[in-house]
């Protein structure tokens, strides 16, 4: 029966010396060692034709079968392109320390492992390939792009010490790859983009002691990747150009500990880390980074726990929509450090661009979420500090007092000015609801100041008098009136006016059962609008009859006028404090949502 060319040993006779040795060891299942070092040039003693190697990899022929362990070759120079597209390979392939040209495994199915460790390969095309075991590409050097797109590897894909040169394009294209684990380690170097978009990794993705350098777009692109285990971009990881993890799904942790992220060719507009809409169920570890993380975005992503330190974050980071369930740091958790973190966002999101009002691109979500997480963690004081700072930012940006739609532009200030004033007072009195105890300080301070003024006005200026006409019209108390005091002075010009004459406050003639004037109780009665201490009802300031002319009224202002105005002001303050206190106690003014 006729067989295709290249599937019979007769098609390759006479054999080269290295091929004769390889044929012998392939039948016995042993390693064929041509040299312990990779050859740099082809010689009669180290050359194996790619076609003959393919003949053995596919199992040989009936008279020259290959052992179940497969072809194992070391230190050979492979002449020509090794074409294994769409083939069924029933044993492992081991080509270590070899020099290959173009190796094609597109659509191939390999029952076993592939080992190309320490070899040189111009290009490797292995998209749509299936390997039941591991694929060893350790210390492999590729001179052109390598493709593993949509391939399936039953065990690990190992690229330890590998050197990939994409010649200005892609270094490795492994979009849609399915593997148990992937390892870029031991001084792995990629010049050109490494693509793992949409890959599914059932174990871990390890990137340690490795370097990714972008020549065109990204350094490492893993958008939409799914990792069932952990992802380590850790000690020795170095990227020059964007690392993309947008849409990634990581069931374990994502560790960036001691990693180094740099812009591409020092481009100020280039991103370092793009992880939008990613989901990490475990911990995102971002500690001891070699450089602060600049120009990174985590927008709309979620992590279980964010673990970072003070040196993690650089400038122009995107945090809008970024959520986390828990926060941990190397040092004690401080609100100011977290506020500084939020201030490192993209300038447009932090008001640094100068735009205000509806034109501002300020993003409140990072502030609200940080505050919520701090509260959930029990850091109530830190949460309050974040909330207060957030309210102040809203006012500075012009997002307080925005008029509803439909109000004419020329009238919007009628809405904005009162809102700004109330917001400022709200912050002054209660810290925007986060410092309710301030009300007590304002209450006590107002009471003390007004008490002092009322006392001085009563003692020195005789301003206060009983408001009950049965008292102030009773001739029994004539010595308490101001008019009596003036008359007494005229009768005794050389003597000081006794304190109990001409002053209702100190008048001893006033019967003891009548409510005596108390500056402190009077001030408290005014402040406590819902409490009646009988002071405001029984006593009031003496104010002269108004003049018909405003100018005459202004020229004849007396202490009584001032005390009347102070009483009105204290009444308004008392009502305001009471309403705020009731609202805070009931939880109406605490801006959580």
Descriptive overview:
With 593 residues, this protein is α/β, with parallel strands linked by helices. Among the domains are: 1-133, no CATH class; 166-331; 438-468 and 514-584, no CATH class. Helices cover 27% and strands 24% of the residues. The protein contains 13 helices and 37 strands. The strands form four sheets. Strands 5, 8, 11, 14, 15, 17, 19, 22, 23, 26, 27, 30, 31 and 33 form a 14-stranded parallel β-sheet that branches. An eight-stranded parallel β-barrel has the order 18-20-24-28-32-29-25-21. Helix 7 (438-461) crosses helix 10. The mean pLDDT is 87.
Number of strands: 37
Oligomer: single chain
- The assigned structural class equals alpha/beta
Taking all Cα atoms into account, the compactness measure Rg is 43 Å
Please indicate the percent range of residues in DSSP E strands (runs of 2 or more): 15-25%
Query: What is the terminal separation in angstroms?
Result: 81 Å
Report the biggest beta sheet as strand number plus sense, adding barrel if it closes: 14 strands, parallel
Counted by DSSP, the helix tally is 13
Mean pLDDT: 87
* Model regions low in confidence, pLDDT < 50 over at least 5 residues: none
Helix content: 25-40%
Shape: rod-shaped
């Amino acid at each position: 029966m006729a067989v295709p060319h290249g599937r019979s040993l007769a098609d390759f006779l006479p054999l080269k010396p290295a091929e004769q040795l390889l044929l012998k060891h392939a039948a016995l299942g042993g390693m064929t060692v041509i040299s312990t070092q990779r050859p740099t040039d082809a010689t009669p003693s180290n050359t194996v034709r790619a076609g003959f190697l393919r003949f053995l990899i596919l199992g040989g022929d009936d008279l020259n079968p290959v052992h179940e362990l497969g072809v194992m070759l070391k230190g050979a120079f492979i002449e020509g392109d090794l074409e294994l597209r769409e083939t069924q390979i029933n044993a492992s392939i081991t080509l270590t320390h070899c020099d290959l040209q173009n190796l094609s495994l597109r659509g191939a199915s390999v029952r076993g492992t592939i080992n190309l460790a320490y070899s040189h390969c111009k290009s490797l095309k292995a998209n749509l390939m299936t390997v039941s075991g591991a694929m060893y590409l350790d210390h492999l050097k590729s001179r052109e792009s390598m493709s593993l797109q949509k391939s399936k590897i039953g065990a690990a894909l190992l690229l330890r010490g590998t050197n990939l040169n994409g010649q200005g394009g892609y270094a490795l294209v492994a979009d849609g790859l399915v593997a148990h684990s992937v390892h870029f380690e031991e001084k792995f170097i990629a010049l050109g983009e490494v693509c793992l978009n949409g890959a599914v990794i059932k174990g871990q993705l390890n990137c340690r002691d490795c370097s990714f350098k972008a020549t065109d777009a990204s350094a490492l692109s893993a958008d939409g990747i799914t990792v069932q285990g952990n992802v380590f971009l850790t000690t020795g990881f170095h990227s020059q150009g964007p690392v993309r993890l947008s849409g990634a799904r990581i069931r374990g942790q994502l560790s960036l500990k001691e990693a180094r992220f740099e812009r591409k060719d020092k481009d100020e507009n280039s991103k370092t880390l793009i992880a939008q809409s990613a989901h990490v169920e475990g911990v995102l570890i971002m500690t001891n980074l070699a450089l602060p993380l600049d120009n990174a975005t985590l927008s709309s992503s979620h992590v279980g726990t964010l673990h970072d330190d003070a040196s993690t974050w650089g400038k122009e980071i995107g945090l809008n929509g970024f959520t986390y369930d828990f926060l941990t740091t190397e040092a004690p958790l401080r609100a100011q450090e977290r506020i500084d973190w939020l201030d490192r966002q993209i300038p447009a999101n932090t008001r640094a661009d100068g735009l205000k009002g509806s034109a501002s691109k300020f993003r409140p979500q990072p502030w609200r979420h940080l505050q919520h997480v701090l509260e959930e963690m029990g850091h109530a004081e830190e949460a309050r500090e974040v909330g207060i700072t957030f309210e102040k930012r809203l006012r500075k940006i012009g997002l307080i007092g925005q008029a509803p739609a439909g109000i004419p532009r020329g009238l919007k200030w009628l809405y904005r000015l009162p809102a700004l004033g109330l917001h400022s007072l709200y912050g002054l009195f209660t810290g925007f609801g986060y410092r309710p105890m301030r009300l007590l300080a304002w209450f006590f301070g107002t009471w003390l100041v007004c008490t002092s003024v009322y006392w001085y006005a009563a003692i020195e200026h005789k301003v206060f008098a009983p408001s009950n006409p049965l008292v102030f019209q009773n001739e029994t108390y004539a010595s308490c009136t101001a008019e009596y005091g003036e008359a007494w002075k005229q009768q005794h010009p050389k003597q000081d006016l006794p304190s109990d004459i001409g002053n209702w406050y100190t008048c001893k003639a006033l019967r003891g059962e009548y409510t005596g004037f108390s500056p402190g109780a009077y001030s408290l009665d005014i402040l406590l609008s819902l409490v009646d201490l009988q002071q405001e009802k029984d006593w009031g300031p003496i104010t002269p009859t108004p003049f018909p002319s405003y100018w005459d009224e202004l020229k004849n202002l007396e202490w009584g006028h001032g005390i009347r105005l102070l009483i009105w002001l204290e009444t308004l303050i008392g009502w305001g404090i009471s309403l705020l206190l009731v609202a805070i106690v009931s939880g109406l003014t605490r801006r959580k949502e």
